[in-house]
Design brief:
Blueprint (H helix, E strand, L loop, with lengths): L1 H5 L18 H9 L6 H4 L20 H4 L2 H9 L34 H11 L8
Helix pairs in contact: 2-6, 5-6
The chain binds heme C (HEC).
Length: 131
């Protein structure tokens, strides 16, 4: 899969959905806004209801659905190292080139393909720019 992607013209975007089932934005919201699942809010703030503490290590996700296309969002979640090799954001759906992986997680990805699609579908709804 990754070898195939490396050959595409725009290496910073993944145009093809990872699954046949379209992403579910409600499940994506749950993944993004709960600490147990995506850990996104450890680093990112955003227009998230009912979330008290949010990180400021990364861009605020408010309006990200207007700033980035769906293929760009997908690439960012699957493996943000493609855009920024020195990123601190974990690659959520890639096991390539990872070091210091705990034995229980070796060869697994943080999110499943369907969860990535759910997260992307949710982020795409965040089109409201900050005031
Ligand atoms: C350890 C910190 C960290 C975590 C956890 C994290 N990110 Fe990020 N994220 C970053 C940083 C830093 C950037 C800025 C670009 C870069 O350095 O790659 C970024 C960039 C992004 C961008 C692009 C934003 C823009 O305006 O261009 C999106 C979208 C994004 N992250 C979504 C997520 C989602 C969704 C999750 C959870 C599934 C998540 N991130 C988890 C650190 C993190």
């Amino acid at each position: 899969m990754l070898a195939l992607l490396a050959g595409t013209a725009d290496a910073q975007a993944l145009p093809a959905p990872l699954t046949a089932t379209p992403g579910d934005p409600a499940n994506g919201e749950a993944i993004v806004t709960t600490r147990e699942r995506g850990l996104c809010i450890l680093c990112h703030a955003g227009p998230f209801e009912g979330v008290d503490f949010m990180g400021d290590l990364a861009p605020d996700l408010t309006g990200v659905g207007a700033r980035l296309t769906v293929p760009e969002l997908r690439q960012q979640i699957v493996d943000s190292r493609v855009a920024n090799p020195a990123t601190i954001m974990p690659p959520y759906h890639s096991t390539d080139g990872l070091t210091r992986v705990g034995a229980a997680w070796e060869g697994t990805t943080i999110l499943t393909a369907q969860e990535v699609e759910d997260v992307v579908a949710y982020l795409a709804t965040l089109t409201e720019e900050p005031e």
